[in-house]
Design a protein that fits this description.
By secondary structure, the protein is of the alpha+beta class. The chain has helices spanning 5-24, 30-43, 51-65, 99-108, 171-182; strands spanning 75-79, 87-91, 114-125, 133-143, 146-155, 161-165. A hairpin with a 7-residue loop joins strand 3 and strand 4 (133-143). The N and C termini lie far apart (45 Å).
């Protein structure tokens, strides 16, 4: 990073954005922001193998941190698939929050490899308090020296699980994959 002036500059901007976000956050949100930043370093930044990947990861993270939120929370939105009824889609700020769960699902199915990082995580909650949550993510799967970008999903209650190669990499693709492969109450 130090040998690339562009990456050094964006790393300095990241440091400033993080300090600013930490100063803006309420005391109760500061520990969550710290954990989120550590996860970003380990499971997003450190997974990048190219400068383009690093540039994109830093740009997305700086944009998020620059919102200077007082309270750290995940963004929820209403998605209406093909004119149907509203389906809640929660986008997690901490895209690494489910890596352990995804790896447990892989291990349970005796699948080769592990998830080493994720850069997008969504939850499609069933909608009832304390009911099932279905999670989907864009992640990096690794087995020995092979690495692949995948979509992966699982749920909290029913044991649904799926993993496949990423196509276009759009939010819509991830939502549809998670909805069709793992959603249910």
């Amino acid at each position: 990073m130090c040998s690339d002036p562009g990456l050094s500059a964006i790393d300095a901007r990241m440091s400033d954005a993080y300090k600013s976000a930490l100063n803006a956050a309420e005391e109760a949100s500061k520990p969550r922001l710290l954990v989120e930043q550590r996860h970003w370093i380990r499971y997003v930044r450190d997974v990048c193998e190219t400068s383009d990947c690093l540039q994109a990861a830093y740009t997305r993270r700086i944009e998020l941190l620059s919102s200077n939120s007082r309270v750290i929370f995940n963004h929820a939105a209403c998605d209406i698939p093909e004119g149907g009824s509203c389906r809640s889609v929660v986008t997690y700020r901490d895209s690494a929050a489910r890596i352990d769960s995804f790896n447990q699902s892989l291990k349970k199915r005796r699948s080769a490899g592990v998830i080493v990082g994720c850069d997008r995580l969504v939850d499609l909650p069933v909608g009832l308090k304390d009911s099932n949550h279905t999670f989907g993510a864009f992640c990096v799967w690794q087995s020995r020296s092979e690495r692949r970008r995948v979509m992966i999903c699982n749920d909290d209650m029913n044991g649904r699980f799926a993993m496949e190669a990423v196509g276009a990499g759009s939010d819509e693709e991830l939502r549809k994959f998670t909805d069709t492969q793992c959603y249910g109450g």
